[in-house]
Write a structure and sequence with these properties.
The complex is a heterodimer of chains A (about 750) and B (about 425). Chain A has about 750 residues and is an alpha/beta fold. Chain A has 25 helices and 22 strands. Chain A has five domains: about 190 residues, SH3 type barrels (Roll), CATH 2.30.30.490; about 70 residues, Herpes Virus-1 (2-Layer Sandwich), CATH 3.30.40; about 180 residues, P-loop containing nucleotide triphosphate hydrolases (Rossmann fold); about 90 residues, Helicase, Ruva Protein, domain 3 (Orthogonal Bundle); about 110 residues, Orthogonal Bundle (Arc Repressor Mutant, subunit A). In chain A, the strands form five sheets. In chain A, strands 2, 5, 8, 9, 10, 11, 12, 13 and 14 form a nine-stranded mixed β-sheet that branches. A five-stranded parallel β-sheet of chain A has the order 16-17-18-15-19, with helices on both faces. With about 425 residues, chain B is α/β, with parallel strands linked by helices. In chain B, helix 12 packs parallel to helix 14 and helix 16 runs parallel beside helix 20. Classes of the chains: A alpha/beta (about 750), B alpha/beta (about 425). At the A-B interface, strand 14, helix 8, helix 18, helix 21 and helix 23 of A face helix 3, helix 6, helix 7, helix 8 and helix 9 of B. Chain A: Belongs to the ORC1 family.
Chain lengths: ~750, ~425
């Protein structure tokens, strides 16, 4: 047992040590997964001189890569771990045997999806030439599923069937774990902190129908173990990686969920977090990374700083357990309690139909790879930011972006920022800090100072103090602090909310960029085009110089956006999409609207299918055969109707007889007098005369008042307080033509038509 | 015993909105199945949705929503949490976010701090929505009186709907409103984020009405009531429901106000007046319910007025007829004196008594002061107007039994010649 260390580096204060057998009672060390990648990245390139002398003897040396028994272990790797000490170390030439011939031929084996047994292509009956595409199930499992008694071929006598590590893991004879940190003890033994995985059988819910054979759950249970108990590598993958991994050997596992061992609850592993890590790794691989230059050390310092503050707050959190989560900004204390007790079946077994996939694509929250139709604006924004950052000309830089809602203003800025972040990583640009604020989410306009200060420094203070500090910071910037020397881009969304009575907030914020050393760039987004003109001249002179207009999308652009999202699937009728986009372009040019119409149309189509008599599956087959689209013109039409049409006509048609008479009387009186409103007294007289002329019972005034108040509640008519009684003023809320149209052919009271 | 049990059963049914609306569950065009489809869609496909339920009051918006939520909770146990907000209470920005945070904390068994600022509360909302999305849990926000959330800057709606825009969680925002133009009240940027699904709740058609009546009043076969009684009860009820007279009366009720809650109120009164000795519903019960059911508050309150009060109202009416635009108690007194002087009756009261009668009328809202300035003058000098129209007064005088001839005469003189 020799250990070779590569790249010896960091020392950090020792964690509470616990060398325990995995079988020992589980200990709860930390509820939160430590942030992995930044540590490893940093430790591989430089030292952080943290004082560890006070820990004295307990000093450990931490590594990011350890070679142990000829195998290299990196932090973040997944490994098999022995359960008990007498678990045999597997022989090196561990080979899975064919289930049929039990011989070890050197040819391709196929794995059954169901029993995970391996089969030689040539041993199958009938033999296969190629590896089939998609899932494959062996003949035995098929037979068993059909209800037949199946006899597996017996191994040749005298041969000991060796179990592979995978099989032993799934039979809970081994553990799997992820290495979180590696270290060398003072006495030379190697230890590691691991995060355990569990197999479905070990969870509280047990193995369920829909669990995959190779599924593992990550737990929040961390433990320090000796390096000796690690057997070798295995590969636990996220769903995305797993679907890509085809022939990576036997030790591949699938992990989608996190399992909380205290609450026995499941939760998906955050995709956003993991995808961010991926980005970091990509950047790692960049060759430029090793050429240390000062900018990058800046960002790293900041990273460090941020991490530090997170650590501090997490320590605080542990001290004051029982503090309410809503008083802790941005962190859910009891997040683990939200987990689900059992992953219910519909989530896993739900096979997406074509229609649903199409619907998912037009969902607003689903992210798109590209943003069509806004290239020009995006290059302009990029040029603006680049120009102001790289050329050291931050003086008075302020961009005002305006446009109607749903034209991709915020999204474009975000996309530009993502691009620039990559450039910063690639060293082609200076680093800068980016702060985003949505003013409608602030409780008062003044709070913006607080938010900016918090984003810059990580501390929370009152807004008055924050304003003071920010003022001094931007106006007389000292060069002592490196961190504050970075240019800073602030994106202020919904800028118009900041307009207060004396407009001091806007003035203060827009005044900072004009200060000589501020290095501040402000991007403001709002809907109204003439916001700068509405403001005081001293503000508009600071803001209104550089503007960017996001025009409403025209129908071709909307069409392109929808097509781009659908990505070639033919769920929607082309003409239907064109219809929807033309309609939206004519009204608002709001991309959200267009997408919502498509989604609603798909939903309606789905609903129609579900309720229609014909069999659903055969319907789909028929449709795909004839090449018909799932969502056609009628659905889009219905969705548009629902979205744009006020429902008052239907309500007028369905309301009570007296209400109808009241409505007609209002129309009649208004038409005769040519006025826009009438008093209740006139209305009541008119209703009485209408009724008596046509042989109806004359309703009491109280009933008429009640009916008109009910109409007023629905805002079909506008009326003031009912206590005004006969002086109450009434007015139609919709054009009188609508009332006439609705009641023209009324079956219930045919004589109404005379008065319209 | 049996009879009380039956009447209890009927009353319990009529008070339970979810029972009343369960009749419309089965039809595919009904709002129940549409709403259920929308919500279960967002549960199954893990997407965000927002729906608006519109319709006049008393048509079962909340009841159907409750029904759908209860059924979904049974179908998907443990993954649905509901946050209920009401525009009357939580329309204001800070209150709304705080209440959302409070209910979410309660739901997930987290400690809740009352001191948290609204920024922190909205952070919590977003965090919990994200966590719920990861755990396949659905949060349903029901906003009753949706139109009241649209006052002010609409921050609550904005933060809710904006969260649904970028989070891949599964949350549904359901707004309920009786204002048909509720979605027009939204600010532009909020409206753009709203997904504009609308379900319209209107009164059921005639056939459905008939079905509803049977659904509510027929006794069920499988209870501990004796089958003979149940059969007898039902057959009598069918006879009543088919009779022309009943249809006539029902039409009278429905003509004035045809929503479901009104109908149910009517039936409830009928059931309450059920004769416990015979144990069956009769036509008389329904007739009696109708007689109760036409509340004419003005007429009632006029009927109980004293003669002096009538004199005052008549005087006001005469002044009205003389097209005096503005008058106060003093000018009314002058008119009263004029009548008294002309006819010499026993109904001549002193000024103080008249003032009390006048105040009494004010309290009952039959007349009203036209100026809002309370401090400046005593009541006698403030302008006043009558809220009773001549027609109503005429009816009331006719109905008033020992009505002095003089009163009628002086009234008729002016108006109905």
């Amino acid at each position: 047992m020799t250990a070779v260390t590569k790249l010896a580096t960091t020392t950090t204060p020792a964690k509470p040590k616990r060398l325990a057998n995995p079988k020992s009672p589980k200990t709860h060390l930390s509820p939160k997964t430590p942030d992995k990648t930044p540590i490893s990245r940093r430790s591989s390139c430089r030292k952080t001189g943290q004082d560890s002398s006070r820990r004295g003897l307990k000093k450990r040396i931490y590594y990011s890569v350890v070679e142990y028994d000829g195998e290299e272990f990196v932090v973040g790797d997944d490994v098999y771990v022995k359960r008990t000490d007498d678990d045999v170390e597997p022989s090196e030439d561990e080979v899975e045997e064919c289930r049929v011939c039990y011989a070890d031929k050197n040819c391709v084996m196929l794995e059954c999806e169901d029993c995970l047994g391996g089969f030689h292509l040539s041993c199958l009956n009938p033999p296969l030439r190629k590896v089939p595409k998609g899932d494959w199930i062996c003949a035995f499992c098929k037979g068993r599923k059909m209800g037949k008694v199946v006899e597996y071929p017996k191994p040749p006598k005298g041969k000991i069937v060796k179990k592979t590590a995978k099989e032993r893991l799934l039979a809970s004879q081994l553990f799997a774990a992820r290495i979180m940190s590696l270290w060398k003890e003072k006495d030379g033994t190697f230890g590691t902190n691991v995060c355990w995985y569990v197999i479905p059988e070990e969870t509280n819910a047990g193995r369920r129908e829909h669990n995959l054979k190779r599924e593992l759950f990550k737990t929040n249970h961390f433990q320090d173990i000796e390096m000796e108990s690690i057997i070798r590598h295995c590969y636990v993958m996220s769903p995305k990686e797993y679907s890509k991994a085809n022939d990576q050997g036997d030790d591949v596992f699938y992990c989608e969920y996190e399992y909380d061992i205290h609450w026995h609850s499941f939760k998906r592993i955050d995709e956003i977090k993991s995808s961010k890590n991926d980005d970091g790794e990509d950047a790692d691989k960049d060759k430029d990374w090793n050429l240390l230059n000062e900018y990058i050390s800046d960002t790293e310092e900041e990273l460090e700083f941020e991490k530090e503050s997170i650590k501090v707050s997490s320590v605080n959190r542990q001290k004051k357990i029982g503090r309410a989560p809503n008083s802790h900004k941005g962190r859910v204390l009891g997040g683990q309690r939200i987990g689900i007790q059992k992953i219910s079946e519909h989530i896993r077994c739900h096979k997406q139909t074509e229609l649903e996939r199409g619907k998912g694509a037009v969902r607003l929250a689903s992210l798109t790879k590209s943003l069509p139709c806004r290239e020009k604006e995006m290059t302009e924004i990029t040029a603006f930011i680049k120009g102001s950052i790289s050329e050291d000309q931050c003086l008075g830089r302020c961009l005002y972006i305006h446009g109607v809602p749903g034209t991709g203003k915020t999204m474009s800025v975000h996309a530009v920022m993502e691009d620039l972040k990559l450039e910063v990583n690639r060293r082609s640009m200076k680093p800068y800090s980016f702060i985003e604020i949505n003013c409608l989410k602030l409780s008062s306009p003044e709070n913006i100072y607080k938010v900016i200060y918090e984003a810059l420094s990580g501390h929370r203070i009152g807004w008055k103090k924050a304003l003071h500090i920010l003022n001094s910071r931007f106006s007389e910037r000292s060069n002592k602090c490196k961190n504050s020397d970075q240019p800073c881009v602030i994106l202020i969304d919904e800028l118009d909310v900041l307009v207060t009575r004396n407009q001091s907030v806007l003035y203060n914020i827009l005044d900072w960029p004009t200060k000589p050393n501020s290095k501040l760039v402000i991007i403001g987004i709002a809907n109204t085009m003439d916001l700068p003109e509405k403001l005081l001249p001293r503000i508009s002179s600071r803001m209104g110089i550089q503007r960017l207009c996001f025009a409403p999308y025209n129908y071709q652009q909307l069409q392109e956006i929808i097509f781009c999202r659908l990505d070639g699937s033919n769920v929607f009728d082309k003409q239907a999409i064109e219809f929807a986009s033309r309609k939206v372009a004519a009204i608002s040019g709001d991309a959200r609207r267009a997408l919502e119409i498509c989604r609603r149309a798909a939903e309606l189509a789905n609903y129609r299918r579900k309720t229609s008599k014909s069999d659903f599956s055969s319907d789909i087959a028929k449709d795909s055969n004839t090449g018909k689209c799932f969502v056609d013109m009628d659905d889009v039409e219905a969705a548009i109707q629902e979205m744009f049409q006020a429902p008052h006509i239907q309500v007028i048609r369905s309301c009570s007889k007296l209400s109808k008479i009241v409505l007609v009387a209002i129309v009649h009186v208004l038409c005769r007098t040519g006025m826009s409103e009438l008093t209740f007294e006139k209305l009541a007289m008119s209703v009485s005369s209408l009724c008596s002329n046509n042989g109806e019972d004359v309703p009491a005034w109280d009933s008429i008042l009640k009916a008109s108040c009910k109409l007023g509640e629905c805002k079909i008519i506008i009326c003031n307080d009912a206590s005004m009684h006969r002086f109450q003023k009434l007015q139609l809320n919709f054009p009188s033509d609508d009332v006439i149209f609705a009641l023209k052919n009324c079956q219930e009271v045919p004589w109404l038509a005379k008065y319209m | 015993m049996e009879v009380t049990e039956a009447s209890l059963l009927l009353r319990r049914r009529l008070c339970d909105p979810s029972y009343i609306h369960s009749i419309f569950k089965s039809s595919p065009d009904g709002n129940y199945s549409k709403l259920k489809f929308i919500i279960s869609n967002s549960i199954n496909e893990a997407c965000n949705n927002s729906v608006l339920l519109l319709g006049p009051r008393g048509n079962g918006k909340s009841a159907v929503l409750e029904l759908v939520l209860a059924d979904l909770k049974v179908e998907h146990p443990g993954i649905i949490s509901v946050v209920k907000l009401n525009g009357l209470l939580h329309g204001d920005n800070n209150n709304g976010l705080k209440e959302i945070a409070r209910q979410l904390c309660l739901e997930f068994d987290l400690p809740f701090s009352k001191m948290a600022s609204s920024d922190e509360n909205s952070e919590l909302l977003i965090d919990i929505l994200r966590e719920c999305g990861l755990a396949h849990k659905t949060v349903i926000f029901t906003l009753e009186e949706f139109d009241l959330f649209t006052q002010g800057k609409q921050r609550v709606l904005y933060s809710l709907l904006d969260a649904l825009q970028f989070l891949t969680s599964q949350a549904v925002v359901i707004g309920l409103s009786c204002r048909l133009d509720a979605d027009q009240l939204l600010e532009k940027r909020v409206r753009s984020r709203f997904s504009h699904r609308k379900l319209l709740f209107i009164t059921p058609l005639k056939d459905d009405m008939q079905r509803l009546l049977e659904h509510l009043l027929l006794l069920p076969k499988e209870t501990n009531l004796s089958s003979i009684y149940v059969v007898e009860f039902n057959s009598r009820l069918y006879k009543i429901l088919d009779s022309k007279e009943f249809k006539y009366h029902l039409k009278k009720v429905i003509d004035i106000d045809n929503n479901i809650s009104n109908l149910v109120m009517f039936l409830y009164r009928a059931v309450c007046s059920m004769d416990l000795k015979s144990g069956f519903l009769s036509l008389e019960n329904f007739k009696k319910a109708i007689s109760y059911f036409h509340p004419y508050p003005k007429q009632e309150s006029l009927r109980n007025s004293s003669i002096l009060e009538f004199y005052i109202l008549v005087c006001m009416n005469r002044l009205d007829a003389k097209e005096q635009i503005s008058f106060n108690f003093n000018s009314i007194m002058n008119e009263y004196k004029a009548i008294m002087d002309a006819y010499k009756t026993s109904d001549n009261y002193t000024r103080n008594v008249c003032l009390r009668a006048f105040e009494h009328l004010l309290e009952r809202g039959l007349i009203m002061l036209t100026d809002n300035n309370v401090r400046c003058q005593s009541i006698e000098f403030r302008p006043v107007k009558s809220l009773i129209s001549p027609q109503e007064l005429h009816q009331a005088l006719k109905a008033y039994n020992p009505c002095p001839v003089l009163l009628l005469k002086s009234f008729n003189n002016e108006c109905f010649k």
